[in-house]
Amino acid sequence: MLRRGALVLVASSWLAGCAAVPAPAGGSRVVVLGIDGLEANALRRYAHSLPNLTRLLDEGVYAEMTVTTPIMSPILWTTMASGYPVEAHGIGGWTNGQGRSFTGADVRVARVWDALSAEGRRSLVSGWLMTWPASIVRGSLLSDRFVWAQPMSREGEAEQTEEALEGTAYPDSLATRARAWVPDEAWLAASPLAYQVEAYGAPSHPLRRDELHVRVFEALWPEADADFGALYVNGADQVSHLYWPFCDPDSQKQIRADTGAHKRQVEAFLLAHPGRAAPPWGVEGLTAVDLAEASRWVPDYYAYLDDVVGRVRRVVGADATLIVVSDHGFQSSTTWPLIEGQHRGTAVFAAVGPRVIPGEGARMHVFDVAPTVYALLGLPAAEDMPGEVRTDMFEVVELPRVATRTLGRGDIAVGSGAGAGDQALKGQLQALGYLDEDGRPKTAIGQSRSEGGATPP
């Protein structure tokens, strides 16, 4: 029998024993829209075609955000949801040294929705990383693995059995409902990104997965009566890994100056990484027409994400605080600047809502996200969280901190890391260069700020 995430043992007693506690008044609802890989320079470069993001930045508060190293999404999104560094929360990347996938069952700390459940308050979570197996919460949770247990692309096969869907959502009935919200072929064909979906090949294009997570949030938020929402989309990261150099002004300049430079770099890349697929336009060479086409991919996906921001803002309403945050930025690879995008250690943090202090804030740190969200929700952060409540950016009062929001060893249920589309997910991660052919990570865990690693300037 599949065991749900790390909080299943304590959550059952919470939910059985506590009546719903009303949230504090005054714009207390908080929604976090996590956009993996959103780059600040791209927001400035494409501002003319991003009306919703531009309006949010103009009306709200904005700050660039320092993140910890290694710059790996599972680590950083778990930090933002919990307030803890990797050493405390337990998610060391996509897989461990033996190739076993990290999952929500490995999380050793309470995340915001867990803390709210303990108070009898409701949350809606859609697609957030490391949420499979879905933990028992007050509210609804569609885990990150639902999309990998479904046939989410036209190529390849995916697990489709009821067993494969086990633990992908809470309540279990949400998995059945979510199937109806998976975008169909007609919608994909009519999308402005249809050319990407058609041309992308393996790994499957992220549009369908992102759109599903957004639809789930749109459909459930009005009926959720929730104090907190968390929505995660990863398409900007996936597209940027392969197409960032084609939209980067410096890389474009190099390609135009030497028409053979791109092909030579592709050949050197394939010699260095014989197991990797050829980068886009890598075999035939890149013409001026190809470069013009390739340069559309990232800005066009940003335009889709801009629409997502508008949709989310409409559905949550003006009385909620909406936070838009990324886990890192993007730049051209320092090793392969003409053919690969690379994570940049500065992320985006922006917010709009009734308790936002508009303007450009002082630099954030990734550790500050969860304590600030706790304050917005009227809950205390923990003494062992290294981050700060950003009272310079929000009209909030920090409550006296509790000792900890970590879990005792007896409260931690460790899963196998297998199932729910595990192989499909690993296939994408291998294609993007995160994992080797045996599923082992190519990046080791580094230091966090609390141990002398990345620090705010």
Order of helices and strands: HEHHEHHHEEHEHHHHEHHHHHEEEEEEHH
Q: What's the CATH topology name?
A: Alkaline Phosphatase, subunit A
Q: Return the CATH architecture.
A: 3-Layer(aba) Sandwich
Q: How many separate domains?
A: 1
Major sheet, described briefly?
10 strands, mixed
**Could you tell me the strand content as a percent range?**
5-15%
Topology:
Blueprint: H1 8-17, E1 30-35, H2 40-45, H3 51-59, E2 61-66, H4 73-82, H5 86-89, H6 112-118, E3 123-126, E4 139-142, H7 162-165, E5 169-170, H8 173-179, H9 185-190, H10 194-200, H11 207-224, E6 228-233, H12 235-247, H13 249-257, H14 261-272, H15 288-294, H16 297-316, E7 321-325, E8 329-332, E9 341-344, E10 346-352, E11 359-360, E12 364-365, H17 369-376, H18 422-431
Parallel strand pairs: 1-6, 1-7, 2-11, 2-12, 3-4, 3-6
Antiparallel strand pairs: 2-10, 4-5, 7-10, 8-9
Helix pairs in contact: 11-16, 12-16
Care to describe what's here?
With 457 residues, this protein is an alpha/beta fold. It has helices spanning 8-17, 40-45, 51-59, 73-82, 86-89, 112-118, 162-165, 173-179, 185-190, 194-200, 207-224, 235-247, 249-257, 261-272, 288-294, 297-316, 369-376, 422-431; strands at 30-35, 61-66, 123-126, 139-142, 169-170, 228-233, 321-325, 329-332, 341-344, 346-352, 359-360, 364-365. Strands 1, 2, 3, 4, 5, 6, 7, 10, 11 and 12 form a ten-stranded mixed sheet that branches. The chain has a two-stranded antiparallel sheet with strand order 8-9. Helix 11 (207-224) packs parallel to helix 16 (297-316) and helix 12 (235-247) packs antiparallel against helix 16 (297-316). The N and C termini lie far apart (48 Å). Residues 1-26, 152-159, 412-417 and 444-457 have low confidence and may be disordered.
